[in-house]
Amino acid sequence: MKKLSYRMFISFLQHPFFSNRAFQFTRSQRSKKWIERFVKKYNINIEEAEHPIDQYHSIHDLFTRRLKEGSRPIEEGEKTIISPVDAFIESSGKVSSDQTFTVKGQDYSIVELLGSTERSNRYKNGTYLVLYLSPTDYHRIHTPFDGKVLTHAALGGVSYPVNQWGLLYGDAPLSKNYRRLTELETSYGRMTMVKVGALFVNTIDLLTEEKDWKKGEEVAMFSFGSTVVLFFERDKVKLTKQQGTSIKMGESIAEWV
């Protein structure tokens, strides 16, 4: 009953009236007066932001803030894969032989999530990590490892919540929400980074057209919310962080083997 009620309520919020209003408000000067409350509510560390709080003119400006240089050191190491974002590791482990993985008791098909059987076959029995970004977090996305971009793709159209309630009671939001994926060829194997949108402000901006990505380089940003899912091929990586762990961009999450 709780799951049904939750899904009905979220479906109601999906109406363009609400999403358009939220989109417009967060980018407007009217939202500026809410910035200090937003910072306090979500315990945002404004001291590490690139600019003082009074230089942000909307909640969107604050949410997409850059950080002061040196705030996120990039962990060195020839085989070190870093977290592309500040996040909580919601789930991690092995993709099953039937090409599914589980988050909050829900099974997700990587064929559906990646939008292609050809793409998903590469990650059968591979390794995955689900990285959830809360409103507290820095929302710019960086490259986990040096690689050459093979493909970009945009999939999905809805914008369900991807927070704890969304993952528990929602209708498979990771594989149904609007998302943008990037597949990289590295010197150790392929990896795919899936950037998943969230409720209301469902925007994911790519910030570079370069094909050669360097570890730690800023490549995209969320306008609000969300989640990054990483996939690696079978027996290619060893995780250095497990689910239930908070992580900062630039810290090691895995190593190539």
UniProtKB/TrEMBL annotation:
Q: Which residues form a coiled coil?
A: none
Cofactor(s), by name: pyruvate
Output the Gene Ontology terms for molecular function: phosphatidylserine decarboxylase activity
| Keyword hit for Ribosomal protein | no
What InterPro entries does the database record attribute to this sequence? PS_Dcarbxylase, PSD-B
* EC number(s) stated in the UniProt entry for this protein: 4.1.1.65
Pathway annotation from the record: Lipid metabolism; Phospholipid metabolism; phosphatidylethanolamine biosynthesis
GO BP: any one term:
phosphatidylethanolamine biosynthetic process
Alphabetically sorted, this entry's keywords are: Decarboxylase, Lipid biosynthesis, Lipid metabolism, Lyase, Phospholipid biosynthesis, Phospholipid metabolism, Pyruvate, Zymogen
Top-level enzyme category:
lyase
Q: Which NCBIfam families match?
A: PRK03140.1, PS_decarb
Stated name of the protein:
phosphatidylserine decarboxylase
Tell me what organism the protein belongs to: Mangrovibacillus cuniculi
- Highest classification ranks of the organism: Bacteria, Bacillati, Bacillota, Bacilli, Bacillales
